[in-house]
Each structure stands twice: as C-alpha cells, then as structure tokens.
Design a protein that fits this description.
The protein is mainly beta. Helix content is about 0%, strand content about 35%. It contains 2 helices and 38 strands. The strands form 10 sheets. Strands 1, 2, 5, 6, 7 and 8 form a 6-stranded antiparallel β-sheet that branches. Strands 27-28-29-30-3-38 form a 6-stranded mixed β-sheet, with no helix packed on it. Strands 4-35-32-31 form a 4-stranded antiparallel β-sheet, with no helix packed on it. The chain starts with 5 loop residues before the first strand and ends in a 5-residue tail after the last strand.
Length: about 550
Amino acid sequence: MKRTGKSRLGAAAALGLFGTASGLGATGAAAAPASPAGEFDLPEGYQIEQVVGGLQLPSSITWDDEGRMYVGEAGSGLFPEQLAPIRILEVANGQATPVIELDEAIEPALVGLKWHDGAFYFTHRADDLTGAVSRATPDGEVELLFQGILDSQAEHQINDIDVGPDGRMYVSVGPAGNAGVMGPSVAPWVMRSPGVHTTPCEDIVLTGHNFQTPNFLTEDPDDMVLTGAYVPFGTATEPGQVIEGVEKCGGSILTFDPDNAEETIETHAWGFRNLLGLTWNEDGEMFAAENGYDIRGSRPVQGEIDASLRVEPGRWYGIPEYSASREPLTDPKFEPPDQFQVPVFLGTDEELGKILGSVIDVEASGLTPPDPEWVLGRHEFNSSPSMIDIAPEGFGEFAGQMFVAEWGDLAPPTNPLREGNIGRQVVAVDTETGEITPFVKGDPIARPFDVQFGPDGAMYIVDYGIVNIDMEMKPPYAYQPGTGGIWKVTRVPVGGVDAGGGSTAGVESMGLFLLGGTALAGAAVAGTMAIRRRSAQEA
C-alpha cells in the first residue's frame, strides 16, 4: 500500500527543464522558458507574466506560512493511468523544484492542494481508486486521512480542498458518470472498477428507468444490457427501489476536522455534478464551480450552461434530476437528438422510447427541489468552470469579485454538437449580480485549471497544459506533460507600484507590458507575446 513520499525540501535539487511525454522520469526543476509565442487579451490596467513553465500536468497551488509557493503535479488526467510524476514542487526565482515525490505514496490524480498547520493536504485516488485525502509533512511523511469515495473510481474524482471560516476542511467531490447512469462513455473506468456507480448522500427512491446499451463487458456485439441509476453497469432497477445514502458520497461537498478526519466526515451539501473549486468571501458566504452535463453516455443531456453556485449547508442541488440552471430535466429543451439517446425501459419490460426522463422520485425521496436563484454565474455550456478564488481589496475594480478558471471543453467526446472551442480563459463573476466578465485569455495558456490570489495580492493562474482529442484512444484524451505553467497577473497603476510590489513607473503610459520583468512592445515579435488591453467598456 502506497504511503511513503520522498522529500527534497531544502535539498539542492538539480535544475533542468521537464520533459514531455517521452521524458516522464525527469526529476529536475522546471524553469520559465523564453517568452512563449502568442497573444493575451486582458483589461486595461493589468499586466501578465509567466512565473514558470515546463510543468507536467500541474493542478493546484498553495503557499506556506512564510509565503513560499508550491504547485502540485497531478500525474494523470481523467483516467487513473500515470502519465507523469505525482509530486509537490516549490516555485521560486523562475524555477519549480520537486520537494515531495508521491509516485509511491498515492494513486493519481493529485487535484487539490492546501497548506495548513505545517503540512500539505491534498486530494487523490487511493490504492483501490476510491477518492481520498492525505497529508504530507515537509520531510515527506505521508498520512492517509481517509479513502472510500466510490465515485472517484470513474471519470470524476475528489477535487478541491480548502479550509473554511469555521476551521474545518472542505472537499468537492464529483459524481460517477454523466447523469447518474453508468454507460459506454465510462467503459474504460468500469472495466477497471466494475462495481463503480453514482452514490447519493441520503436515501433516495428511484423511478425504475433503465437504459439499454451494448454490454461492453462481453465480446458479443449483440449482447444488450439494461442499467439503472445509482447502480453498477448492467444492473436494472425497479420503480420504488430505495438506494441508501452513504457517508462518502459523490456529487457533494464533504467537510471534516483535519485532526480527526475519518471520524468527523459530514455532508455539507450535495446534488452537484462535477464540482471543482470552493471559496468563501469576507462575509463567510460560500461559492463553488461546477462542470455541467455532457451529451454522452447512456443518459446524455443537452445542457444550456455550466454554473458557479451559491452554497448553503444542507441543500440538495438537484443533480441528476435538474439542469445546471436548476430546471427540471423533464423540460423537452434538455433532450438531445435521438441519435445520441438509447432506449429507456420502465423496469425491465415496458419500453418508454428514447427519452431523458427522470431517475429519482423527488417527492417520494423527501427532497426539496433546487431554486434557480442558487445559481450565481451562468457560464457557457462545456466551458468547465474549475478552481476559484475571491479577489482581494487591492485588485482594483475587480476587488471582491470571484475569479473562475474555465478549463474548456473536450468536444466532440463530451459534446458532438459543439463546433469550436469554449472556455480556456479566466473570468470574473460579480458575487452580487452573477454578471460574468472575461478577464484573461491567450494562446500561451492552454488549459487554465487553478486561479488563486497569493500573499502578495497578485493573481496566479495554473495552466494544466495542452490536452487534445484523439478519437483512436480510449478514453480519447491526449495529454502533453511538460506544457503546463504558472502565470502572474498584477495591476499596473500609472507611475505606481504593482500588486506584487514591483515598480511600474512609465510602463502603462508607454503602452507596454511586462513579461518576466522585461518591458516588451505590444506588437508580437518572434518568441514573445502581444497583449491587447480591453477598456472597461469593452469588457
């Protein structure tokens, strides 16, 4: 059983660029390369610079009590097959130096990372591929706090981790599957973990709708199977069947005392789809970012939005019975074309046709339908809102707004109807009105996953790196380790001092921007980046 990490904190690690997929064994530090070519679009009065590049699937950043920055490298993508090192690196002086190696201690992916009370806390998969939380001391001692979130054996795993105003830890947990039913779109995960299924936090009563698909667990192409909601693939359900709630449930926010995690786990709220980022504002109000449905699997959904949400304890947020906008999925507008749907049966005998239908009897389950007012920001469908943070007072006109890293779509596997890419930017969300304003977008940032404000008041963006679609692969996602990085955004007052404390006198008035501490002309030249500043009116 994996438990021991290797620490290099304080050691003189050899420096060098990370390799790509062909150099996964690299153990040196990553350095910021010469200016990557490309163009940025961001509001007037702000500047962007690269902190470090060459990272291998970076996921989250955190700072220790001395203000030192660390980044976690995930080790894998959606599928739990290791593609690159799993580790925590210290970022300083344009270098990212490994301090804790986790290849032998955990299963990928490492997603959330938080420094708290002298140690790193992080989310990951355990040896049985269930969702887990561990703690690592700076000297590399790794302690498993808990495991057993069954849903993480599928494509959506345990994600963000943070400390709330009450001192308890909170984690966001994705549900197994697209919309409550295991089907062909999660075949690679089911083949590895046949018992995986969506789990509820409370007892629910099923409608008994079952979805007919080919049985990918056999070699017979004519073998068809019925699968219901909240049960393993190939298991049919009956009307009125009760599914018992579990403590370590999917589609949830779980909370616990970090000093006694296993004994204190509680459900804070549930009924989410793939929930990622968590944060609180100065008033203690909680927010979260959610990836909406896909047009895939046995129960595809034609969604309208992805969402950022206002979170209150005890609420059921409606998934998989309601949309990301918290409207009933029985509304015909959420029905995808028949070509993407499968036959649905009531029980095992009565065929209902190709319908999206309902899988939970909400009234019989004693659930209160969600309120659309719980939706804060209406992000574009498939934009994949990920990690989030609230801007501090010193961040100019955007102070107090919530920033969201939109990782972007994975079409066509997740949406065969989509043309062109969406997301792949950082947006600001007004926490009063829900109005969304694009903030940073640019070719050099491939997949923004995390956005956090550091002790210096600057914004830091973690770029996960390049992920392409390859329909010859199963699952069809081609990751490119070594293409990730961290970017820093600060204010540029005329003749003033930026949020990071550096002098910017004269830079704004010259129409220039800073990259790695060097003023560069706004026009793109070989090996550098151009920047287009938007006025407040354009934003």
